[in-house]
Amino acid sequence: MATTEFIAAIELGSSKITGVAGRKNSDGSMQVLAYAQEDSSTFIRKGVIFNLDKTAQSLTSIINRLEGELKNSIAKVYVGIGGQSLRTVRNVVSRDLEEEAIISEELVSAIGDENIAIPVVDMDILDVAPQEYKVGNNLQANPVGLVGSHIEGRFLNIVARASVRKNLEHCFQQAKIDIADQLIAPLVTANAVLTESERRSGCALIDFGADTTTISVYKNNILRFLTVLPLGGNSITRDITTLQMEEEEAERLKKAYGDALYEEDPEQEEATCKLDDDNRIIKVADLNNIIEARAEEIVANVWNQIQLSSYEDKLLAGIILTGGAANLKNLDETLRKRSKIEKIRMAKLPRNTVHAPNNILKKDGSQNTLFGLLFEGNQNCCLTETAPQAAAPVPPVSKPEPEVHRTADIFEDDQELKEQARLARLKKEEEEREAKLAAKEAEKLRKQKEKEEKERRKREAGPSWIQRKIDSLTKEIFSDDDMK
């Protein structure tokens, strides 16, 4: 039977595009109904789309596969925005009042509007995280109702390069997929894995991805800092290829033997590993020397960003790791050595339960953003939602409203009828395309005939007055020359 109520989401990652559809249960858990995934390494880099056509094709394929599992059409999807250019920018807006007065909600809203109106060069403000409002010498989360003659609003604007949103929307338009909402991926991930206690006490969430590493810092339940580093698991993989192997082989060895703090046991025989491609033998120590060097570089950059946030000594809840690349053995220990923070945990699954087959659910932290998008969704993404509006113009005599629902049920239960409807829709679209081509051809012929008709009239009318005058003068000149 077809599914008529679900939430659909798509995550555009640097290594893969993943689509999922699920239904929320009354206990807050999520039941996964459909799942599809495609490689994106050839058209998405550092979390940013650079080949729009290939991305649109992949989106279409993902949607078709999801619809095949759901046995129904998807009207819209939730999508996450991320990428290398995503970061936060602090801003302060001040207002001096003529005299002491009660701070109104209208004044606070006006200060917020002024913050958004401030231009950021080549950047879009995607969202705003209000920090505190300073009234007099006191900081307040909500200043409405306080008395003062000066108010200062402190904001954290989440920005990204203007092309990020533009390219994302263009790809979905090209794939003819409506977007239910664009959500900021790191915020979605944080909502999925962080507890309220961790946000309140202060924590840093580090999402180690394929091409990027995202750092988000929270304190007092407020986002305090967000940035994206252009370093990730693929940086380590590419370094391993210097041992003369393909990236696929390097990725396999990294997962099988990788250790960010590898120490060789002097009492045991030197460990080696074999390459699948050419049966070459390489030392595990040589492999991990490369891995350790890059892992230390990534961790050093991560800790440097946390220090730039000015909250490195306020993280009472410690550091939370997530993302597929965070599974590298002893990466947490490397971070612990660098930061001197003992409280580090790995978030391998969202806080809310996800019910899915074992071949879909990966308990490695790589799907937290994807499932986070599902949990954030609150709209039914099934196309049957719009069926009553589509049927409204049809005369009641030939197709009364009750019949609309019966027809929908038949299509849901009968795959053959649904396939017939799909083919009919495709045929109609093809006919419309042919009609447009025919209209263009007819217009072209009409313009050609008009041009030919003008030339014919011109020939019949003979030379213009100016041309006749020129011909006459030319004849006279040549006649005079002949006489001489």
Structural summary, described in words:
By secondary structure, the chain is an alpha/beta fold. It contains 14 helices and 19 strands. It has helices at residues 52-70, 105-117, 162-174, 185-193, 196-201, 233-240, 247-257, 284-308, 331-339, 368-376, 387-391, 401-413, 415-461, 465-483; strands spanning 7-12, 16-24, 30-39, 44-45, 48-49, 76-81, 87-102, 123-135, 138-140, 147-161, 178-184, 203-208, 213-219, 222-229, 272-274, 281-283, 319-322, 344-346, 354-355. Strand 1 (7-12) and strand 2 form a beta hairpin. Helix 12 (401-413) crosses helix 13.
Top keywords for this entry?
484 residues, alpha/beta, six-stranded mixed beta sheet, five-stranded mixed beta sheet, 26% strand, globular
